[in-house]
Amino acid sequence: MAVYSGKPVTIGRTIDDIYAKVSDLSQYKEMVESLPAEQREKLQGVEFRGDAFKMDAPGVGELVFKIIERTAPTHVGLNAEGCPIPLKLSLDLADVDGASTRLTPRIEMQIPAMLRPFIGNKIQEAADKFGEVFTSLFPTA
Fold this sequence. Notes:
There is one protein chain. By secondary structure, the protein is α+β, with helices and mostly antiparallel strands. It is built from four helices and eight strands; from the N terminus they run E-E-H-H-H-E-E-E-E-E-E-H. Strand 3 and strand 4 form a beta hairpin.
């Protein structure tokens, strides 16, 4: 398995608050439905279903990421179903100062060693972007 750790991001919320949000995907369906139409349009193909979310991946098709690990309040792991190669997303949380949380995203993917030089940079970029998404999802309380 190749492991790509995203850049850690610090979010101005408690670790318990962040864990509650990332370990329960059911709350995102309502949040997406309340977005303005133009923002919802950008999320075309993304659907939240209880402990999983579905997305349409260009060139791959439909991927479903299902929560398979929860270690309160420090870790949430999701596994890709319907992916042609084993793929796992992880979120590791660490308390910074009682009022802030450091979130480190990680992508684990089973890709042949000979392909890593060709696609590794793109997967690393995705891991870094994955962390940035959370800073916009969780504005300071």
